[in-house]
Each structure stands twice: as C-alpha cells, then as structure tokens.
C-alpha cells in the first residue's frame, strides 16, 4: 500500500543552520504531498503543500519540491530559528484526490540558541 | 474565524468503559476527519465524514465509531476501552483547497 517514510529524529541544529528533513513516498497515481508542523501541546498545522510533479510549496521560509522521479518531498529551510522547534510530518493524500491522508512518523526538530 | 474545537481536552478512563469525543469544525467546513496519534504508530486515519455520511474508514476495529450531525459537528466513540487505546485523538476539518485544519486534540488515558 501507499506509505510515507521520514528520516528519524531528533534533529538538533544551532540557530541559523540549514535544515533538511527527508521524506520519500510510495504511491500509485499522483497524490498531493504535504508538510504539517506540530508545536508542543497543539494540533497539526499545514506548513506547505504541492499537488503535482515539480511543484514547489513554500511558507515561512520553508520549501519542498515534489520530485516524482525520486518520489521525494524533502523539507528545507535556509536558516532555522529557535521558534522552529517542533515536530514535522510529511503526508500524502491516499488515494490521490481524496482527503484521507497517510502521515509519516514525524521528525522532531530542536533548534538551540 | 474560530478554529477546530475538540472536547474534552483530557480524560482518564478505565478498561472496559466507553468514551465519546466531540469535534466542532471551522464554520462552513463540511468534512471532518479523525486521527489517532500515538508515539509508536504515529498518526493513523480513523474515519472521515462529509455531510453526515462516512466516506472513508481506516483499519480500526468496530469498537471505534463516529457520526456527524447536520451542523457538521462530529463525535467519535470508543467502546470497551483497552489500554492500547490511550492516545491523542485529533479531529480535522477540510478547507476548500483540500488542506486539513486540526484541533488541539483530546488526550485519552486508559488505566
């Protein structure tokens, strides 16, 4: 079946460091891809999305590109801040076009001042 | 505009009891989904409702059920609780572009 694989965390970075969180997926068809973020004690918030191959989603300095050839949707940010500390989830819509999502296991990011 | 509201935020039950959780979606949203979040399994889809009809269902036993009312509010029920049902239960309503808006969750502890 369809699945999402994220890199294991936690990821610990110093402020202003470059961030990459890897996400690869297995899916039939053309799912939409998403990154969600969960801050402590809160629900998930949509960070960015891409709906077709080569689309780049971006928000708050984060970006991710839908790569069909490598089935990847890696999250990047050029300069992280302490306030970016959270858990990040990669997700896809399964089946494509529906709103039943498959989430990755989440990657915890800790940014040190 | 108000976000997704889930009640109660925290609850403790004992094995064998049943529990009902409530979710009020963002005004105007007609689709409500439920997810179970645990440290071991991550986020797992339970079910999705649209206009009072269940459209999708995840791989959970029949002890897990839900419903949606005409005002789009949704409830989920878990009967005969087991220790493994301890989790954060997240509700989400769907926006026009397909994105999910999550509530803060109901944290259930089963003793």
Structure description:
The complex is a heterodimer of chains A (113) and B (111). In chain A, 0% of the residues lie in helices and 50% in strands. Chain A contains no helices and twelve strands. In chain A, strands 2, 5, 6, 10, 11 and 12 form a six-stranded mixed beta sheet that branches. A four-stranded antiparallel beta sheet of chain A has the order 3-9-8-7, with no helix packed on it. In chain A, strands 1-4 form a two-stranded antiparallel ribbon. The model of chain A has no long low-confidence stretch (mean pLDDT 92). In chain B, 0% of the residues lie in helices and 55% in strands. Chain B has no helices and eleven strands. Chain B is globular and about 40 Å long. The A-B interface holds A 32, 34, 36, 41-46, 49, 89, 93, 98-106 and B 4, 31, 33, 35, 42-43, 45, 48, 56, 58, 90, 92, 94, 98-105.
How is this fold's topology laid out?
The complex is a heterodimer of chains A (113) and B (111).
Chain A: E1 3-6, E2 11-14, E3 19-21, E4 23-26, E5 33-38, E6 44-50, E7 56-59, E8 62-65, E9 75-77, E10 86-93, E11 101-103, E12 107-112
Parallel strand pairs in A: 2-12
Antiparallel strand pairs in A: 1-4, 3-9, 5-6, 5-10, 7-8, 8-9, 10-11, 10-12
Chain B: E1 5-7, E2 10-13, E3 19-24, E4 31-38, E5 42-50, E6 53-57, E7 64-68, E8 74-78, E9 87-94, E10 100-102, E11 106-110
Parallel strand pairs in B: 2-11
Antiparallel strand pairs in B: 1-3, 3-8, 4-5, 4-9, 5-6, 7-8, 9-10, 9-11
């Amino acid at each position: 079946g369809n699945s999402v694989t994220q890199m294991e965390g936690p990821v610990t970075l110093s402020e202003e460091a470059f961030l990459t969180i890897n996400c690869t997926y297995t899916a039939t068809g053309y799912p939409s891809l998403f990154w969600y973020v969960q801050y402590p004690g809160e629900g998930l918030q949509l960070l960015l999305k891409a709906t077709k191959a080569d689309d780049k989603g971006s928000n708050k300095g984060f970006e991710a590109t839908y790569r069909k050839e490598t089935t990847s949707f890696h999250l990047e940010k050029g300069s992280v801040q302490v306030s970016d500390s959270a858990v990040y989830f990669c997700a896809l819509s399964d089946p494509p076009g529906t709103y039943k999502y498959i989430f990755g296991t989440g990657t915890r990011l800790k940014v040190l001042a | 505009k108000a976000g997704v509201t889930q009640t109660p935020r925290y609850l403790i039950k004992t094995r064998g009891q049943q529990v009902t959780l409530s979710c009020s979606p963002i005004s105007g949203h007609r689709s409500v989904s439920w997810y179970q979040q645990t440290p071991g399994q991550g986020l797992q889809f339970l079910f999705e409702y649209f206009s009072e009809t269940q459209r999708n269902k995840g791989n959970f036993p029949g002890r897990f059920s839900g419903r949606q009312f005409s005002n789009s509010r949704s409830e989920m029920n878990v009967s005969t609780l087991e220790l493994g049902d301890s989790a954060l239960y997240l509700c989400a309503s769907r926006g026009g572009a397909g994105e999910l808006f999550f509530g803060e969750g109901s944290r259930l502890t089963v003793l």
